[in-house]
Amino acid sequence: QVQLVESGGGLVQAGGSLRLSCAASGRVFSINTMNWYRQAPGKQRELVAQITSGGSTNYADSVKGRFTISRENAKNMVYLQMNKLKPEDTAVYYCSLTVVSATPTPPYWGQGTQVTVSS
After folding, report:
1. DSSP strand pairing (10-13 vs 113-118)
2. Residues 119, 73: Cα–Cα separation, whole Å
3. pLDDT (tens digit, 9 = 90+) per residue, 67-119?
4. How high is the pLDDT of residue 22?
5. For residue 70, what are the CA distances in angstroms to 2, 88, 106, 119?
6. Alpha-carbon distance 22 to 35, whole Å?
7. 3-class SS at 61?
8. What pLDDT was estimated at residue 50?
9. Is the CB of residue 71 less than 8 Å from the CB of residue 77?
């Protein structure tokens, strides 16, 4: 089993910054991608940022230039630096990861951390 625990969420004013962290533990082998998703009330969960095992990154258009994803492979950690936050960034942010496996394996998910941006 793999456990993911997010931290770093909170309340911040528009224009401010937050840094989310996610720690993976348990039977963590051959991590492929590490990802941040978010889900706002009444909306579908969306991919915010993704980082591959090789360090390639991918961002949602709405956060490009403001958010930065990074990872520490040795510690099984992934981070999301969020700058210039906007009220529309308010959501529950979820960490997830995929693994390289001989059999199909669904992504693992954390419990989420709330980010609230006030105007």
Report:
1. parallel
2. 36
3. 999 999 999 999 999 999 999 999 999 999 998 888 888 899 999 999 999 99
4. 97
5. 20, 22, 22, 27
6. 10
7. helix
8. 98
9. yes
Give the separation between CA 71 and CA 74, rounded to whole angstroms. Answer: 9
Which amino acid would we find at residue 65? G
Which of the 8 DSSP states describes residue 103?
S
Residue 104 has what pLDDT? 84
Kindly give, in sequence order, each residue whose CB lies less than 8 Å from that of residue 23, ignoring residues fewer than 6 positions away. Answer: 4, 5, 7, 75, 76, 77
Which segments of the chain are extended strands (E)? Answer: 2-7, 10-13, 18-26, 31-39, 46-51, 57-59, 67-72, 77-82, 91-99, 108-109, 113-118
Q: Which of 8, 11, 7, 17 is nearest to 85 (CA)?
A: 17
Q: What is the pLDDT of residue 28?
A: 80
Q: Residue written as tokens 């059999």?
A: 103
Write down the mean pLDDT value for the chain: 95
